[in-house]
Amino acid sequence: MPTIRSSADLRNGYNEISSFCHQYGEPVFITKNRKVFRSNI
Known about the structure:
- The longest helix is centred in the middle third of the chain and has 11 residues, at 14-24.
- With 41 residues, the chain is of the alpha+beta class.
- The chain has one domain (3-31).
- The chain has helices at residues 7-12, 14-24; strands at residues 3-6, 28-32, 35-39.
- A 3-stranded mixed beta sheet has the order 1-2-3.
């Protein structure tokens, strides 16, 4: 199941999000002002 995180989470917790993507191979959707951007780190 895709994960949804805020852009602040990406800024403040990049390593955590990167580790999650590498470990689970699932997409992470980054939101900013209620718009969703897909990240494939």
